[in-house]
Design goal:
The protein is α/β, with parallel strands linked by helices. The chain has two domains: 4-44, no CATH class; 59-210, SPOUT methyltransferase, trefoil knot domain (Alpha/beta knot). The protein has six helices and ten strands; from the N terminus they run ββββαβαβαββαβαβα. The chain has helices at residues 70-83, 101-107, 122-131, 148-154, 174-179, 197-210; strands spanning 4-9, 17-20, 37-44, 59-65, 88-91, 116-119, 135-139, 146-147, 160-165, 182-185. It has a seven-stranded parallel β-sheet with strand order 6-5-4-9-7-10-8, sandwiched between helices. Strands 2-1-3 form a three-stranded antiparallel β-sheet, with no helix packed on it. α1 packs parallel to α6 (197-210). The protein is elongated, with a radius of gyration of 21 Å.
Length: 212
């Protein structure tokens, strides 16, 4: 089990303080000013949340279409594991755990817990999923988007949903968006009109799994 300690720079004009794993980094000198570091706390273990005995209100899977960044996909795997998602459909150029070390490092083992599959064409997959009676819910800001909290008021518990997210820059493929049964959006109050795709996915995944 990993042990950490906190070290602080001995230079009174710097005083950089940071946690570290001494088995990986010696931490003898300050990375900011180069002066010696002093251990001020430790060793200690990183606190962990206990697994709670709760089940999602809905069976949620996700379709990730042409996500470019392995970092984003790795973060999505961690979110999917935490939120209890049933499956991740990796479509188009979306990286997979088998071909991206960066993804595995970001996912921190979640890719071993969450079932996933690859599909070159999201449109064909979407039609197949709809044919099985699954509802596709696109996460996109359009004139027809329903705020996610309002959507949950209309959605029955125990329903099986596929959360659809698209490319970081171009969004969901218009052809795929046309196949979505509903389109939802997250409220945006600031000047920016969108969030990082992994962040938006995380918010929506938890709302759909546990909300209302």
């Amino acid at each position: 089990m990993t042990m950490f300690e906190v070290r602080e720079c001995s230079n009174k004009d710097c005083r950089l303080r940071l946690p570290m794993n001494p088995s990986e980094f010696s931490g003898a000198y300050c990375p900011r000013c180069g002066e010696p570091m002093v251990r001020v706390l430790g060793p200690y273990q990183n606190s962990k949340c206990s697994t709670v005995d709760i089940q999602p209100k809905r069976k949620v899977s996700a379709l990730l279409d042409n996500i470019r960044s392995a970092y984003n996909v790795g973060a999505m795997f961690r979110t999917a594991d935490g939120a209890g998602l049933q499956h991740l459909y990796l479509c188009g150029i979306t990286p997979t755990p088998t071909d991206q070390e960066t993804l595995r490092k970001t996912a921190l083992g979640a890719e071993e817990n969450v079932p996933w599959s690859t599909h070159p064409n999201a449109i064909l997959l979407a039609k197949e999923l709809r044919g099985k009676g699954l509802r596709l819910v696109g996460l996109e800001c359009t004139s027809k988007s329903l705020p996610i909290d309002q959507y949950l008021e209309l959605t029955e518990a125990a329903q099986s949903l596929i959360l659809v997210v698209g490319n970081e820059r171009s969004g969901i493929d218009p052809g795929l968006l046309d196949l979505c049964d509903e389109i939802i959006s997250l409220p945006m109050i600031g000047r920016k009109v969108s969030l990082n795709v992994a962040v938006a996915f995380g918010i929506a995944a938890y709302w759909l799994s546990f909300g209302r």
